[in-house]
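Morning. Coffee machine broken again, so started the prediction first thing and wrote up yesterday's gels while waiting. Chain of 307 residues, entered below exactly as on the submission form.
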Amino acid sequence: MRIVSLQPYLTDIAYSLGVGGSIVGVSHLCDPKSGDASLIVVTSAAPIKAPNADVETLLKALSLLPVNLEALKSAQPDFILTSCAHENPESFSRSAEVALRALLGRKVTVCSVTITTFEQMLEGCGVVGSALGRVREGYDIASRIKAQLMDWGSNFYDRMKNKKVTVLSSVAPLTIAGLWIPDVVKLFSGKPQFDEAGEPHSPTTWEEILSFRPDIIVVAPEGATVEQSVKTFKELQMVPQWEDIPAVKRGAVVFADGVNLYRPGPRFVQGAAVLLSAMAELDSGYITKRDEFYRLRFVELHRHRFL
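Came back before lunch.
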């Protein structure tokens, strides 16, 4: 089997299923840890011109990322893992298979998996496993993710119960994390500021954050490293009434990686560990890697190191 994965989280799941050796193409967002550097990159950050309007329509609906037809032809896949940008992914997948067979000269199976909630994250592992002939392994991955998060939630329940939590997915512009983040905050017994699981990250204002009065703030701009997250402190400290926010008064502001938290699948467990550490006020290195996040007071004391 020759697999092309058009989404980083699907690449992660495929490797966790033990079929990484069959992957021949990946998206440009997949990092080296997801596979061999010799893999063909079949998507781009910028729009790619298609040979005609029909092919352009097909490729735009095939993935949320721009697909390079020539790279796809070079990869010669017989299985494509993707998240279709189409209102009816199942119906589209079947029609896409016919069109791709004509374009690539070989039979291609398209498996579309879109994840916007925690429940879909678990279901998605099972769907990918079933599609790739690794049914048991797929459900095992889902079970391990759920069991780990529930175990943490149970063990640290008293430290997290009813805490108000604001997770910032961007500082400029200011947005609160949506998708599966509200689900997980509630799973950890907290109260998310943005309580619309499955919805995209939501624009907000500092007035709304002040009104919510969060006990915990997690600063994790999407796609940012820990070091990049820490640098947002320059902007945060300039916010009027910054010192009046309960989380700031208590030093319960955490600067974290903005990748794992928004990567559904096996890698999300690392992001969830940081979220739980912030809510339960655990030290870095306790259930996470050391220095996987930094607290406000540490950043203030080591300003010269970060800013």
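The mean pLDDT is 94. Going to sketch it on the whiteboard this afternoon.
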